[in-house]
Amino acid sequence: MNIRQGFSDPYGGTGQNNHTTPNGRDLDLVQIGRALWRGRATIALFGLIGLLLGAVYGYGVAKPKYAAATLLVLQPPSDPVLDRTTSGRGLSADLSDMNTQLHIIRSRSLVAQLVAQLDLTDDPEFNPVLRSGFGWWSGRVDAPGPADPEAAHRVLRNVQDAITARVQRNTRIFVVSVTSEDRQKAAIMANALADIYLQDQMNTKFSAAEQAAGWLSGRVGALQQDLAAREQAIAGLQARTQLTSAEGLALMGARLKEVRARLADVQDRANLAAKDVAEIARLRLAGDVVGIATMIGDQQLARLAAQSDPTQIDVHLDRVEAQYAATHQRLSSQQVALDQSVAELEDAVATQAADLTRLQQLEREAQATRVLYETLLLRLKEASALGGLQEANARVLSEASAGTYQSPRKGLIMVSTMLIGAMIAALYVLSKQFLHAGFRTAEELEGATGKPVLGQIPVLPVTKRNELVPFLVDHPTAAAVEAIRNLRTSLLMANVDQPPQVILTASAMPGEGKTTQAVALAQNLAGLGKKVLLVEGDIRRRTLAQYVRVSSEGGLVSVLAGQKTLADAVQHVSALGVDVLLGEGTQSSAADVFASRRFEQMMQSARASYDMIVIDSPPVLVVPDARVIARHVDAVLFVVAWNKTTRRQVAAGLRQFDLANCPVSGTVLSQVKPDQMARYGYADTYADNGAQGGGYYGAAQA
Predict the structure, then answer these.
(1) Together in a domain, 470 and 546
(2) Does residue 179 lie within any of the structural domains?
(3) Total of domains in the chain
């Protein structure tokens, strides 16, 4: 049958409230505040414990620390002469340079010198190997034998941790601070570290000056040898050549030009003479005496040609040819001589030009070497002379005095530990409030399952099973009995036209109050004047006899076996006003028993004989009996123990009924603890909380 979703009644049904739950909804800040307020005692207790622990640590365990500070000022060199050398250059006021000096002050090399100078390896404050005792007392034990590298490293690290260095804003002043358990020791360490830092600067400069002087000395010696070799090469070149000067080379070039001009003139005249000789020979061969006389302008030859005297003409022509041939021969000899002179002059000019270029190159290289040699020689003399004038780039502005108290800050420690304790308690309170696996309200259960919550049943004030029936009879107006009555009302009013006749009480796991709900519900239904049958469906454990005090002989199995009829097997419990059919042990499977045709027939007979039938079943996640019985019922009540049954178990139990196609009609939140509900902030979701329900549950208060 269908149970109306969302049905609620004033006490046992579902209701709407503004509380948020952890099943997918956002948390309400007001609810968080209320949860913290309810847990204020726990928070206050944890805060007080934290305060006491902080006081114990601040006043007993932690040792007092004192800080002493030395002021150093960064300054440029006071002697301007030092600026001329590389090693004497002062540091700039650039922020990167200032930060570099801070790292130098706390460097391992300087701190190692401080440890060695003050013998801090044997100080228990920095060497944990030498410490013994606890808290406010710490003694000194015997020092270890051979030096341990790891122990030395720890001492160095501890001393570094005790040193801080910073730059005062907008100044060139360093503040070197040392923290120690002893006021005077802190001041001694700060001043010693400042002296070591200044001495390290001096040593660095002296080392740089020595390195510079050594390098300059080596370079000067090498340059001196190089200069001597170059001057010797110049002298050798001058000795090997006939070169006088660049001016002489220029005169030789002018002479070469003049000889070349004379050679060209002689070549032209020799060529012209050769042509004349050839032309005269041609004309004579042709017999053209007049042409020869005209060409050479010889009047005598012209007269002889006119007289036609061959003898005289031949004699005269022989003389002319000999004269022109001699001229040509003389010019040719001059040309040969001039050619030789030009070649000699060209060789001389080329040789002397190359020698002059080489000489000039050697002279330039020698001059450059001489300048570099003289410069480095001067720097070497300056570095040697100024080496003793080096000074540090910083000076002590103010020495450290006895240290001032720094820690522990007892008040801050106590407040911090108190807050930490309170925060831990708050997290614990909130985790108890919101991070729970079970269900605390009907709204949580309904939201997680999608099933209506038909009742919220508080824990019944009984300790034994046989005390249940007397309590139900003697306290009919008790809060728990009223909650059962509200469950009955919700169940019957869910469908007024066709109320359920057969009701199955089920649960996911044992111990969730399922049998108690079945007994109490049967008693309440009988109170309506109905004829009620209570069937023990859990034939494996068979605990119903402990509730109703009836004979355990004969029961459900006997009826199914045909040994007894239903009317013979049931036993009437006058205190409850109901008939009870107890379970019996069987060699067969319990699931097979309930799946048999005989059980179906028995249920049909029971429906005909009784107005209401309540069946108590075993846990659905343990055995399958409940799913088999559910096929023969009209309503399935799924009992969930308050703040106990996990969400996973509830979901798995409901899924078992869905798989059997017997969906659960509604859920019951059982074993509710009203006092704890109020503690968790759910008082407004449950009526039995004193102020809200006290006027209605008089019998419960009696």
Answers:
(1) yes
(2) no
(3) 3
* Parent domain of 40: 29-60+408-434
- pLDDT at residue 19 greater than cutoff 50: no
**Do both 417 and 476 map to the same domain?**
no
**SS3 for 624-686, per residue?**
CHHHHHHHHCCEEEEEEECCCCCHHHHHHHHHHHHHCCCCCCEEEEEEECHHHHHHHCCHHHC
Q: Is the pLDDT of residue 570 over 90?
A: yes
Q: pLDDT value at position 281?
A: 84
Q: pTM for this structure?
A: 0.51
**Which of 434, 452, 471 is at the close of a domain?**
434
Q: Mean pLDDT score of the chain, rounded to an integer?
A: 80
Q: Tell me the backbone φ, ψ of residue 609, rounded to 5 degrees.
A: -100, -20
Measured over the CA atoms of residue 226, residue 230, residue 231 and residue 232, the dihedral's sign is positive
> 122: phi > 0 → left, psi -120 to 50 → alpha, else beta; which?
alpha
For residue 146, the model assigns a pLDDT of: 47
Q: To the nearest whole percent, how much of the chain has pLDDT over 90?
A: 26
In a domain, 219, yes or no: no
One domain for residues 257 and 350: yes
- R_g of the chain, CA atoms, integer Å: 64
What does the pLDDT look like over 133-165, one tens digit per residue?
Answer: 544 444 444 544 445 788 888 899 999 999 999
Beta strand pairing call for 394-398 and 65-74: antiparallel
Q: Based on the number of CB atoms within 10 Å of its own CB, is 271 exposed (0-12), middle (13-18) or buried (19 or more)?
A: middle
Determine the residue type at 25.
R
Q: How far is CA 536 from CA 467, 596, 669, in A?
A: 18, 17, 21
Tell me: pLDDT of 699 over 50: no
Q: How far is CA 267 from CA 113, 256, 270, 324, 575, in A?
A: 97, 16, 5, 16, 168
